[in-house]
Design brief:
The protein has 849 residues and is an alpha/beta fold. It contains 31 helices and 23 strands. It folds into four domains: 135 residues, Calcium-transporting ATPase, cytoplasmic transduction domain A (Distorted Sandwich); 276 residues, Calcium-transporting ATPase, transmembrane domain; 156 residues, 3-Layer(aba) Sandwich (Rossmann fold); 154 residues, Calcium-transporting ATPase, cytoplasmic domain N (3-Layer(aba) Sandwich). Helices cover 51% and strands 16% of the residues. Strand 12 and strand 13 form a beta hairpin. Helix 5 packs parallel to helix 24. It is elongated and about 115 Å long. The structure holds adenosine-5'-triphosphate and magnesium ion. GO terms for molecular function: ATP binding; ATP hydrolysis activity; P-type magnesium transporter activity.
Length: 849
């Protein structure tokens, strides 16, 4: 094709040979150079619709705020009537403020994007005839990819080979059950059974597929483009939005009010309109999104230093609010390295026969390969050259077992391994030490179960191993073959508790996070691990108990059960849902395919970099090292984020808001406007600049000790209490300024400009802590910016720039007055603030469990 593209059409149609020819590839994939060339032509394999508008457009979009537009329009009008200077000033101030916003936000987003790339999904492709791990975004049409259980399918492709491949297509078709896929040599099979699609995941089995189309050309890419599937907003995002809406309503009301009154009093309408608009600009927390993003990205960067990657920003506040953490056991509470230490027969004596069977099973199973399989394969290498695999019943987390059908030197053999209770229950015979097969009478069954119980008491994990001779005409294995088995013995593993986990759990509990364990493993082993780690187990329940509970019974018990054992993936999700219904903010930490749906459903989904694709994809936080200790760091960082955003909002909604309201009120009884529109805008710009340090601010330890939730009610009450304090001082200021200067607009405006800015800005030193401002040191950047803003306001009146804004030098008597007013204001705010938080601390808390 002329533009260098290879044919990218429906992966289900046509024969495989034809498709490979058209894609210019073969079963061995592409050469690296050719793949690079195709990547340049076809673009990256990404479906994300929200990806990068050019920076210029994003910058310009910031002007598309109706307030800003009306303001620019009005000042253009006033320029037309002669006031060109004020037009220039308005344009300058608007551009300065948008630039401040844009630069900060862009830098923050770049940090986050870089972090996200660091945990991007990979794909296993054939390049230059070898398997290579590449980022999934670099997969191109013609690539041959290898798929295994737990993988996300990187792009749309056609199966070249497949073994017991089951795929979850819910994201694409809504179909909740796994769909079987098989090679379709000639093409056209119903329901695309010969093809795999981006956005779906491999549940079990393995395959090789040739990629036919990538990125937005995929079925999922087109869907994502049309639906623009944005995740639902989190409680924090909703809270921020509600806060914005609350301020907006007040602003609209105030602007209409000021405009009406001024028109009613026959004042110059254009100036009145500009004044009202400038007030509105002063009122809107236009920096809020920027402050949120910058605060979050700063938190994300600090966490990156602890090797935790924040993939989804909203997770950052949720983790600060998290009251409950549900976690799996393997790798989190135990060392990730599992070792096989023994292989014993039905009496508990060492047996090579059991090892051989276990090895055969692990060696030939093609589905989910777990750490247990790795441990078996590493343990030794018996000669299996005479063995061929015929079929398998793949592993799944409901059955908790896997069986392979083998031809072992002429005899057909089904070898099963899995959770011991279940394997034993499916057995009707057992192998005695001399190899004879005996029926499993109740006494033998009890003896074999006792061996398993003994291993569990010692904290050893075990898998049951069993086999069954099959007739020679048996070519495919089915579920019902897993019956009348001959029990052989146990494969025994050591999965030692992780020393650091005990402290990590304690730290989380100290930080006010309830920790609960959900595991697919059995109760003895889990109890043992908890005992070793000193984690109290007051109540333990199993998946079987859970299955017998209705929703009400579960709701009643979920709070008290410390450990859930032998739970299936669906049950993990059920426990999670029950916790969420208690009103708690719930985190889920897991690394496996069996954890993915619970991770997805959690408020805080946490996975590890080495985890399965599906788990990583569902998570909002990725731990580069599987270590519970860093979860606490994330919790603290999340709390810090929420606290700092709250500071900004409390500032905006108390002091700044009060000032603007007072100014609107003053415009009623003063014979002139209390500030010129350009002065209001300048006041707002300086105020904004002073707040740019908030994301970097320190947060008191006391505020980080408990989960922090975004609390709009608190903000509203704070505003109602501190608003009047601020207004009281404003009106005192107006009165004193009139007394001091008489009805001189220039002096009055200059005095009020300086006073209002000083009070608005300096109050941050009180609001940023619930305790004494003297005991809590602010971050130097915040202190410097705040003091610089106040200094600028004090110096402006004596500069030519100040003169351009209409300011005049102030007499020394004013500065005395200023010190008195600001000092008095801060003192009263401090007293009121203490009383406010003391009352709140006394009120009953709403925290669950
Ligand atoms: N490869 C395997 N072959 C046979 N059985 C297995 C295999 N992997 C796991 N099982 C069985 O399935 C059970 C559940 O698996 P697993 O322990 O991975 O679940 P989990 O919920 O992830 O537990 P954890 O909290 O320990 O991570 C195991 O206890 C074991 O009995
Ligand atoms: Mg697990």
């Amino acid at each position: 094709m002329s533009d260098g593209r290879v044919a990218a059409d429906d992966p289900s149609e046509g024969s495989i040979d034809d498709l490979l020819a058209r894609l210019g590839t073969g079963p061995d994939g592409l050469a690296t150079a050719e793949a690079a060339r195709r990547l340049a032509v076809h673009g990256p394999n990404e479906t994300g619709a929200g990806r990068g508008r050019p920076a210029v457009l994003r910058f310009l979009a910031k002007f598309l705020n109706p307030l800003v537009l009306i303001l620019l329009f009005a000042s253009a009008l006033s320029a037309a009537t002669g006031d060109v200077a004020s037009f220039a000033i308005v344009v300058f101030l608007v551009v300065a403020s948008v630039t401040l916003d844009f630069v900060q936000e862009t830098r923050a987003e770049a940090v986050i994007a870089a972090l996200r790339r660091s945990v991007a999904l990979g794909a296993s492709v054939r390049r230059d005839g070898r398997d290579a791990a590449v980022p999934a975004a670099t997969v191109v049409p013609g690539d041959v990819v290898r798929l295994a259980a737990g993988d996300l399918v990187p792009a749309d492709g056609r199966l070249i080979s497949a073994a017991d491949l089951y795929v979850g297509e819910a994201a694409l078709t809504g179909e909740p059950y796994p769909v079987e896929k098989r090679v379709d040599p000639e093409g056209g099979a119903a329901d695309g059974a010969g093809a795999v699609f981006a956005g779906t995941s491999v549940i079990s089995g393995s395959a090789l597929a040739v990629i036919v189309r990538t990125g937005r050309a995929t079925a999922f890419g087109r869907l994502a483009g049309s639906l623009a599937a944005a995740p639902p907003p989190t409680a924090f995002e909703l809270g921020i939005r509600r806060f914005g809406a609350m301020i907006l309503r007040l602003t609209v009301f105030l602007v209409l009010f000021v405009a009406t009154v001024n028109v009613a009093f026959d004042r110059p309408w254009l100036e009145a309109l500009m004044f009202a608009l400038a007030l509105a600009v002063g009122l809107t927390p236009e920096l809020l999104p920027m402050i949120v993003t910058v605060t979050l990205s700063r938190g994300a960067r600090r966490l990156a230093a602890r090797r935790v990657v924040v993939k989804r920003l909203a997770t950052m506040h949720n983790v600060g609010a998290m009251d409950v953490l549900l976690t799996d056991k393997t790798g989190t509470l135990t060392e990730a390295r599992i070792r096989m230490i023994r292989h014993v027969d039905c009496r508990g004596a060492d047996s090579d026969r059991v090892f051989r069977l276990a090895y055969l099973n692990s060696r030939f199973e093609s589905g989910i390969r777990s750490a247990l399989d790795e441990a078996i394969l590493e343990h030794g290498e018996p000669d299996v050259s005479a063995v061929t695999k015929l079929d398998e019943v793949p592993f799944d987390f409901e059955r908790r077992r896997v069986s392979v059908l083998l031809d072992d030197g002429g005899t057909r053999l089904l070898v099963a391994k899995g959770a011991p209770e279940d394997i034993l229950a499916l057995s009707s015979f057992y192998e005695a030490a001399d190899g004879t097969v005996l029926p499993l009478d109740p006494a033998a069954r009890a003896a074999i179960a006792a061996v398993f119980a003994g291993l569990g008491e010692d904290g050893l994990r075990a898998l049951g191993i069993a086999s069954r001779a099959m007739p020679a005409d048996h070519v495919s294995a089915v579920l019902s073959d897993e019956s009348a088995l001959v029990f052989a013995g146990y494969a025994v593993f050591l999965d030692p508790p992780k020393a650091s986990a005990a402290e990590a759990v304690r730290d989380l509990v100290d930080a006010g996070v309830t920790v609960r364990i959900l595991t697919g493993d059995n109760d003895r082993v889990t109890r043992h691990v908890c005992r070793e780690l000193g984690i109290p187990v007051r109540a333990l329940a199993t998946g079987e108990d859970l299955a017998a509970m209705g929703e009400d019974a579960l709701a009643a018990r979920v709070g008290e059960v410390d450990v859930w054992c032998r739970v299936t993936p669906a049950q993990k999700e059920r426990v999670l849902a029950a916790w969420r219904r208690t009103g708690a903010v719930v985190g889920f930490l897991g690394d496996g395919i069996n954890d993915a749906s619970a991770i997805h459903a959690a408020d805080v989904g946490i996975s590890v970099d080495s985890g399965a694709d599906v788990a990583k994809e569902a998570a909002g936080l990725i731990l580069l090292d599987q270590d519970l200790r860093v979860v606490r760091d994330a919790v603290i960082e999340g709390r810090r984020t929420v606290e700092n955003v709250t500071k900004y909002v409390l500032m905006g909604s108390s002091s700044n808001f009060g000032n603007m309201v007072s100014m609107a009120g003053a415009s009623l009884f003063l014979p002139f406007l209390p500030m010129a529109p350009t002065q209001v805008l300048l006041n707002n710009l300086l105020y904004d600049a002073s707040e740019a340090g908030i994301p970097f601010d320190r947060v008191d330890d006391a505020a980080l000790a408990r989960p922090v939730r975004w609390d709009l009610g608190l903000i509203r009450r704070f505003m109602l209490v501190l608003g009047p304090v601020s207004s009281l001082f404003d009106f005192a200021t107006f009165y004193l300024l009139l007394r001091l200067f008489g009805p001189d607009p220039a002096l009055f405006r200059t005095g009020w400009f300086v006073e209002s800015l000083a009070t608005q800005v300096l109050v941050i030193f009180l609001i940023r802590t619930r305790g004494s401002p003297l005991a809590s040191r602010p971050h130097p950047a915040l202190a410097a910016l705040s003091l610089a803003a106040v200094a600028a306001a004090l110096l402006l009146p004596v500069t030519p720039l100040g003169a351009a804004f209409g300011f005049v030098p102030l007499p020394w008597s004013f500065h005395l007055l200023l010190v008195g007013l600001v000092g008095g204001y801060l003192a009263v705010v401090e007293v009121v603030k203490r009383a406010f938080f003391r009352r709140r601390a006394a009120a009953p808390s709403h925290r669950s469990a």
